[in-house]
Structures are given as structure tokens and as C-alpha cells.
Specification:
Largest sheet: 8 strands, mixed
Distance between the termini: 23 Å
Radius of gyration: 25 Å
Strand order of the largest sheet: 1-8-7-3-4-5-6-2
Helix content: 40-55%
Structural class: alpha/beta
Shape: globular
Number of strands: 17
Number of helices: 22
Strand content: 5-15%
Oligomer: single chain
Length: about 575
């Protein structure tokens, strides 16, 4: 049994397909001057073949997954077309008299190593893309054809060191029962694609590829983050029952799609979806989302080499607003900084980027960012939300800019919702503590529990060494949440939550008891949370919450939450 990161829910049992890439043996011998032209020609032919292959993969991805998922291959094509890459390789062949494959390998590794050394999760993951392109060019130089995942002819569990974007884009999806990889986290490409495909996946196991052989039987438990290789008959039977129960449960939960999230005694909550791209709306509607509680606008800025145009942004917001057909769509203004950086946005190096020039602090200097959201409000029920607010001062500054943009649109005769609602993310302790003051300035709150936990507990949520200190059940977190909800209701505004806690079954009863108005989460979590809400009374939730608010430790609270969840739905 190996433990990894639970990347995509579900249980898969099947035959192992050990996916090992073929790597050419790099020719490190020097060449004669007379061979330089031939080596450059080899490189140029390989580049052209690589571009043709990537173009084909991009078209297939766009057809099967949508334009947003295909953008990664646009980025790959840009790398293959990069004149700096071309010049560096050709110059190395000419000056150092090395072979084409050696030059490509050296240049790619040099650039990828620089990316990996940066303290930026997004850029670290882009190093994988760069190596993927480099691997393809080198194999094309040698005439090596990798195992083709599009030709899978039986149901398998793919076990790999990692799966690159081109791997997941080309594989024959209907034959893939699950994934397990040595590396990766919940934000890695493999994890994102697995969730998009609704395929069980466990990533970051460390060495699963060393523990399996082709044809072995494996269990991938994407709920618990466990991989079991060649299980005993008893274990196999146990997991077959778990898998079948899980499938039945998922099908049964689908029946709730059009039913409201209302408690046994009539208290109704709103369940919304968090999305990153326009194409994610389909999943939100399929799972019964009553709105979009968080549209992460930064995803429109990623996987590209320049800012999206105003029209690109406008069309994205307009598409989502129209698709939601009058249901609320909360657009968060650009939340860049911390662990999310843009290679084309010149931002200062900072000692503590999570406490630095990011989110609203950046947006106050980039006034044009508000314009597209206002324009799109003419096409649906759009709300605007400011991230990283720490005081009333920032809200007032942001609203001043918003009013300036409104005046500009009025002068130009551009239509927009003149009564557009404006809210803030409550994710900094100072905002949670002064919620009574902030509630007088805005139309709604949305609690971002990921950062609220990080900042309140002084725990870097990306740091594996201190992950046990990151405790959403910490009494301080629950008391801050209570303060925010109570302050909002006193002023007659609503409070939503769009952090990970909103989609966690263990926190549902507590949040319900605290009076949370809207739960916003990944679309696939909605049916489960709705089921819990529909099987408990609001009065019982309030009693339970009052009890846990008097508990002293996160472990006590979590244990109590497990017990009541089992009492409500038997899990």
C-alpha cells in the first residue's frame, strides 16, 4: 500500500499499464565542422515535426475538452516556435561542435532548471511543459516513437512517473480506469485533468512506478489517496464493494440535482460552484449549481505569454453570465501574487510574497481590470468581489475606481448593470475581526478559508513540513467565521464561503449552524454537500455548532464532526 495525494475522487480497480517514456541516448561526442550543417538540418526537421504533432494534439484537445484546456498546447507550440530556443541550439551546434540532440538537451535543461529554482509553484510546473517539448524534439531527432496512449485496447490503470499535458490529451479516455503517479500535487496538470475527466487519481506517491509491473492488479483509491498493488483476495473484495457503493452513491446523488439545499426544518442554503474557465460552467450546471460563487479571473491570464485583451476577458465573462441564465455569477477581480505569478507581469521579488504586492493591492494600480466585468454585467446577474481586503480604506479606494469606470462607460453609452452588487473576500484576520465595519461598505462577504487559515495560524499551506499545523477546525478559525457571518446578518447582507471548507463534508453541519448563506465549491462536491444539508435540521446544526465552539482543540472538533456526519448520512 502506497500513500499519495487524493487528486480525483472515486475507486478504480484494474490491470496496470506501466507507462514509461522512451528516452533517446544522448550522443555526447563532438562533431567535425563538416557535420554542422547536417546536425542543424536534423534539428530543424525535428522542430517542424514537433510543431505538426503539437498542432494535432491541440486540435484534438479543443474538440474533446474545450478551448481553455487546449491553451496548454498553444503554450507548447510557442516554446517550439521560440526563436531564443532555436538560436541557442543552433549556436551551440556551430560553436561547441555538439550533436543536435545534445544541444537541445542542454538548452532545455538549462531553462527548466532555472524555472524549478524559482520560488513559484506555477513556474515550477511549467518546467514540466518545457521538458515535455524538449523530450519530443529529441525523440524526433532520433526517430523514436513513444508508446501511443491513444491506442489503448483494454481497460487499464495508468501508472507513470508523471503524465504530461500531451499524454493526457492523446490517451484513449474510455479505456482509462484511473491514474497513479510518482510526482504531482492537487494543482498539477494530471490532477486537474483527472478531475475534469472524473477519473479516480492518486498523485505524489513517491515511487509507485518502482512497485509495479505491467499486468499487475492495482487499486487506486482517489478518495483516500491510496494505491494498493496486487491486493489479497480479501482486500480486493473489500475495495470492489467500496467501489460499487461509491458508484451507486454518486448515481443516487445525481437525483438531487434540481432539488433545493433545504434542511429538514425548512432552512435553505445556496450551493454555488467555483470555476476557473468558461468551460467549467457545464460541470457547474450538470451538478446543480445555483450560481457561480467564485470565478477566478487569474486563470484567463495564465498559460500565455501576454495579457488577455479586453475583448477576450469580456467574452469570457459574458459567456458565463449568459450560460447561467440569470443565476448569480461572482467575479473575483484579479488575484495574482503569492503563489500565482505571471511571467509577463513585471512584479518585484519579495521576501514574503503572500504578504506582498498582490490581489487588490495590484488591482488598485490597474484600473482597467474593472471595465470588462462591468460591461459583462449587461448580459446576466454579475457580482464583483475584491480579494485580499484588510480594511475599509481599500474597499473605499476600489469603489472609487469602480465609480470612475462607471462614469466612463456612461459617457460612452455602454450598457451595464447600474445596481451591480459589490462584495469582498474575507481572508485576512483584520477583515474578519472588523467585519462589522466592512459590512457597512459592501453588499456581501465571501470567506476565503484557505488564506484565512494560513494567515490566522501563521502556517504556509504549501509547506509539507508544517502541514499538520494547518487546521481549519482550529477554534480561532471557527470563531472568526462566526464573527463574519453575525456581522453580515446584523447589517442585512449575506455571507458566502468559497474556500476549501465550503466543500468539505466534515464542516457542512458546523457552517450551517453558524448561519452561512452560500456554500461555493468545486462543482463535483455540490451533490454531496446538498445531501448532508437535506438530511439535518437547522436547529440540530445550531445546537451542534454551539457545542463545538466551546471545544478547545481542532482534533476534538474534527472527531465530533465525524460522529455527527455518520449520524446524519451513515458515513
Amino acid at each position: 500500500m502506497l500513500k499519495g495525494v487524493a487528486a480525483s475522487p472515486g475507486i478504480a480497480i484494474g490491470k496496470v499499464f506501466l507507462y514509461e517514456k522512451k528516452f533517446a541516448e544522448i550522443n555526447t561526442q563532438t562533431i567535425d565542422e563538416s557535420m554542422v550543417k547536417d546536425e542543424i538540418a536534423k534539428f530543424e526537421n525535428a522542430i517542424e515535426l514537433t510543431k505538426a504533432q503539437l498542432e494535432k494534439i491541440k486540435e484534438k484537445t479543443e474538440r474533446e475538452f474545450g478551448k481553455d484546456k487546449a491553451e496548454i498546447f498553444e503554450a507548447h507550440l510557442m516554446l517550439a516556435n521560440d526563436p531564443e530556443l532555436y538560436d541557442s541550439v543552433v549556436n551551440m551546434i556551430k560553436i561547441d561542435y555538439v550533436t543536435a540532440d545534445n544541444a537541445v538537451n542542454h538548452v532545455i535543461e538549462q531553462h527548466a532548471s532555472v524555472m524549478e529554482s524559482l520560488d513559484d509553484k506555477y513556474l515550477k510546473e511549467r518546467a514540466v511543459d518545457l521538458r515535455d517539448v524538449g523530450h519530443r524534439i529529441i525523440n524526433n531527432i532520433h526517430g523514436i516513437v513513444d508508446v501511443n496512449l491513444s491506442e489503448l485496447d483494454e481497460d487499464v490503470i495508468i501508472i507513470a512517473k508523471d503524465l504530461t499535458p500531451s499524454d493526457t490529451a492523446t490517451m484513449r479516455k474510455e479505456k482509462v480506469l484511473g491514474f497513479a503517479t510518482d510526482v504531482g500535487g492537487r494543482t498539477s496538470h494530471t490532477a486537474i485533468m483527472a478531475r475534469s475527466l472524473e477519473i479516480p487519481a492518486v498523485v505524489g506517491t513517491g515511487n509507485v512506478t518502482k512497485q509495479v509491473s505491467d499486468g499487475d492488479i492495482a487499486i487506486v483509491d482517489g478518495n483516500e489517496g491510496v494505491v494498493i498493488v496486487n491486493p489479497t483476495e480479501d482486500v480486493l473484495k473489500e475495495y470492489e464493494e467500496k467501489r460499487d457503493k461509491y458508484k451507486i452513491r454518486v448515481e443516487k446523488l445525481k437525483e438531487l440535482k434540481d432539488l433545493p439545499a433545504v434542511t429538514k426544518d425548512g432552512r435553505q442554503s445556496m450551493l454555488a460552484a467555483n470555476i476557473g474557465t468558461p468551460n467549467d460552467v457545464e460541470g457547474a450546471l450538470k451538478n446543480g449549481a445555483e450560481g457561480i460563487g467564485l470565478f477566478r479571473t487569474e486563470f484567463l491570464y495564465m498559460n500565455r505569454n501576454d495579457f488577455p485583451t479586453e475583448e477576450e476577458q469580456f467574452e469570457a465573462y459574458k459567456y458565463v453570465a449568459e450560460k447561467m441564465n440569470g443565476k448569480p455569477v461572482t467575479i473575483r477581480t484579479l488575484d495574482i501574487g503569492g503563489d500565482k505569478k505571471l511571467p509577463y507581469l513585471n512584479m518585484p521579488d519579495e521576501m514574503n510574497p503572500f504578504l506582498g504586492y498582490r490581489a487588490i493591492r495590484l488591482c488598485l494600480d490597474e484600473k482597467e481590470m474593472f471595465k470588462t466585468q462591468l460591461r459583462a454585467s449587461a448580459y446576466g446577474n454579475i457580482l464583483i468581489m475584491y480579494p485580499m481586503i484588510s480594511s475599509v480604506v481599500e474597499v473605499r479606494k476600489a469603489n472609487e475606481i469602480l465609480n470612475e469606470v462607471k462614469e466612463e462607460l456612461d459617457r460612452k453609452g455602454v450598457k451595464y448593470d447600474k445596481n451591480i452588487k459589490v462584495g469582498i473576500m474575507v481572508e485576512i484576520p483584520s477583515a474578519a475581526v472588523t467585519a462589522d465595519l466592512l459590512a457597512k461598505e459592501v453588499d456581501f462577504f465571501s470567506i476565503g478559508t484557505n488564506d484565512l487559515c494560513q494567515y490566522t495560524l501563521a502556517v504556509d499551506r504549501m509547506n509539507e513540513r508544517i502541514k499538520d499545523y494547518y487546521k481549519p477546525f482550529n477554534p480561532a478559525i471557527l470563531r472568526l467565521i462566526k464573527n463574519v457571518i453575525d456581522a453580515s446578518h446584523k447589517e442585512g447582507i449575506f455571507t458566502a464561503m468559497c474556500g476549501e471548507m465550503a466543500g468539505d463534508p466534515l464542516t457542512t453541519v458546523i457552517l450551517l449552524g453558524l448561519g452561512l448563506d452560500e456554500f461555493s465549491m468545486s462543482a463535483s462536491s455540490i451533490p454531496n454537500i446538498k445531501n448532508i444539508i437535506r438530511n439535518v435540521s437547522y436547529e440540530k446544526a445550531k445546537e451542534f455548532t454551539e457545542m463545538v465552539l466551546n471545544m478547545s482543540t481542532p482534533d476534538e472538533i474534527e472527531e465530533a464532526a465525524r460522529k455527527i456526519l455518520y449520524e446524519i448520512i451513515g458515513e
